[in-house]
Amino acid sequence: MAKCNLLEQRAGCVRSVEVWPARSDRQAERLRELIAVLQSVDPDFVTVTYGAMGSSRARSLALIEELVALGFDVVAHLACLGNSRDELVDLIHRYRSLGVCGVLALRGDPPLESTTGFGASELHHASELVELIRQESDLPVIVALHPDGHPDSTDIASDRNFAAEKLGNADLGLTQFFFDYASFVGLQSDMMARGVATPIVPGLMVPSSPKQLLRMTEIAGIQPPPYFASADWDLDNGLDRFRALALDGALTLARRALEDGARGVHLFSMNSAQVTAEFFARL
Q1: Largest Cα span, the chain
Q2: Residue 259, phi then psi, degrees to nearest 5
């Protein structure tokens, strides 16, 4: 197994940020603002999303190339869903030639408007993709983990077994966002109980509005955080108070995880320059 060099920086404690390729002029402007913030934050690596069924492949490749040219260490997302084995091999080699510092191996998701259409997929599990990346490159491999269980899982025990299988062959785990710290602790404990000691970094999200929070928690199949349930939110007003509580909540989770020995923090930026700047400034 290749040694993961992603943890050799910052005394073994990493700060990382997820970014999306832009799909419109307005999103491109937001992305430019975010990249400017990232240049001051100086994260240990930036992850670039891939899009459902590879829907943003060309934009993802272009963004990866740009970020590498700017001096960022980039981890490229790669998903089984919608790709043949040959296409995956080609992308692994393409990522290598672009100079990425790692690959985040995912099963992937169908487009939101469809739950079918796996297309040319020949690999159906992230664990299979981890093995393929190992065969085709020496790149560090990261896998995604779900503290509250994958939304498609039938039960938490079987989900933990699948998670242990892929994490055991990876260099690093990044979690999906969560709002209950006990879920993160439970994931770590279950991996250790299964003999898997690969480091797990918590992934955190700072939702910008109640509407966004409800949408993201519905997709992830988890409950909204306590600060949402404790108030009768007007979904269009009171955004300043909501955002302050959301940021405080994410920072509390981050600090608690770091105090307990987590090897870093991963921020789902939602391409928000303001959130990214405030999160790392206060952290």
Answers
A1: 52
A2: -65, -30
Transcribe 60-121 into DSSP letters.
HHHHHHHHHHTT--EEEEEESTT--HHHHHHHHHHHHHHT-SEEEEE-----TT-S---TT-
pTM score > 0.85 for this model?
yes
Alpha-carbon distance of 206 to 183, in angstroms, equals 18
Q: Average the pLDDT over each of 13-27, 51-65, 102-116, 263-277 and give the range with the smallest value.
A: 102-116
Give the Cα separation of 282 and 201 in Å (integer). 19
CA-based end-to-end distance of the chain: 33
Return d(Cα 227, Cα 217) in angstroms, integer: 14
Mean pLDDT estimate for the chain: 88
Question: In what order do the strands lie in the sheet containing 172-175?
Answer: 200-201, 172-175, 141-145, 102-106, 74-79, 45-48, 14-19, 264-268, 203-205
Q: Which domains does the chain have, with CATH numbers?
A: 14-282 (3.20.20.220)
How does pLDDT run across 39-65, given as a tens digit for each residue? 999 999 999 998 654 557 889 999 999
CA-atom Rg of the chain in angstroms: 18
Pairing mode of beta strands 172-175, 14-19: unpaired
- CA separation for the pair 190, 169 (Å, rounded): 16
Tokens 């910052």 -> residue: 10
Nearest to 12 by CA among 163, 171, 166, 134: 171
